[in-house]
Amino acid sequence: MKLTIVGCSGSYPGPDSPASCYLLQADDAEGRTWNLLLDLGNGALGALHRYIDPLQVDAILLSHLHADHCIDITSYYVLRKYHPSGQQPVIPVYGPRGTPRRLARAYDLPRKPGMEEEFDFLRHRGVVEIGPFTIEPREVEHPVPAFALRVTADGASVVYSGDTGPTDALVEIAKDADLFLCEASFREQDDNPPNLHLTGKEAGEAAEAAGVRRLVLTHVPPWHDEQEILAEAVPAFSGPTELARPGATYFV
Ligand SMILES: [Zn+2]
Ligand SMILES: [Zn+2]
Hints:
The protein has 252 residues and is α/β, with parallel strands linked by helices. It has one domain (2-251): Ribonuclease Z/Hydroxyacylglutathione hydrolase-like (Metallo-beta-lactamase, Chain A, 4-Layer Sandwich), CATH 3.60.15.10. It has helices spanning 44-48, 67-70, 73-82, 99-106, 168-173, 200-210, 226-233, and strands spanning 2-7, 21-27, 33-38, 59-61, 91-95, 119-123, 128-130, 133-139, 147-153, 156-160, 179-183, 215-218, 241-243, 249-251. The protein has a seven-stranded mixed β-sheet. A hairpin with a 2-residue loop joins strand 7 (128-130) and strand 8. One zinc ion binds at residues 64, 66, 142, 163.
């Protein structure tokens, strides 16, 4: 399975990266490559063009409905609906309850049909299989319904935290992952609100408790020095730890 960081800026797009978006690619038994997107935050659709033909996305999974994780679906709707080669086939979009209503409002569409003629909206309920991928959602700790996502293909696993405060649910879903893409939005030195995000240290602690093989820190907001966040995580986790970078690829 190949992971490409399309966007990793936390909470809003920064000068060097769009907001959250991660591309996962794997081949099925017939050799067809499947393209899965985890989140499609502000600015990510533009950057996605660098890595694949954006019409070749097979499914989108949204961790939650904050704009920095979902809002470029409004632009992706335009791309698929009005593309000169014709309206594109319907693809699944998995998300929390209320996803179709939220996206219809964001584009100022009537609630019915909203975007339901372009996307097949499905709720995170349990394990699903999409091509060669198996995806397990797990609700985590955030002010709105939010999910971590565990994606497995060919025996390898990538776990994406989405946005979350510290919670056992995150450690459980990340258990023994080959690569843990974990948010780290806060610094230990600040007076942080509870149940919202992780500090760099807390991300490292979650990785250590889950026994993952590799930690990639993501969702650092541009208002922080990312090196400070990394420096918090490194002593807390005994495995390799790095910052996500737009365009970085990982073979898992
Ligand atoms: Zn966020
Ligand atoms: Zn959020």
